[in-house]
Amino acid sequence: MKSSPSSPRTARGLTLLELTVVIIVLLSLISIIFVGARAWKKGSDRSGCVINIRNAQQAVRSYQNLKALPTYTPINMFTDILGPGNFIEHDVICPAGGDYDHIGYIPEQGEMAMWCSLAASDEHVPANTSDW
Asked: Are residues 96 and 121 in contact, defined by beta-carbon separation less than 8 angstroms?
């Protein structure tokens, strides 16, 4: 005589409710990853922009030292600093799509020679420029 199992046979697989919960959890995790990736991209664009501004500032200081020019001497950033054979070979481009503008003269220490059009909205500005 065969003995019957003590528990009834259960169906294998997921119910519709369990499957829905799993899908919702996965979609939530994916959306969190996309938000994090977007914030990471924004931060990397901001830091790339600050690096471009710092490089331009160093190029202006190098030009000033090489030519022994005093502060507030007029310069043309696009012919004296940027371009083939100058301090920065290629045109400087903001990674986030902003435009760079410059003051047109050699700034005093702590003043930026160039800035980004996204400086007000996305903080594309260096935190401290006192040693520039």
From this structure: no
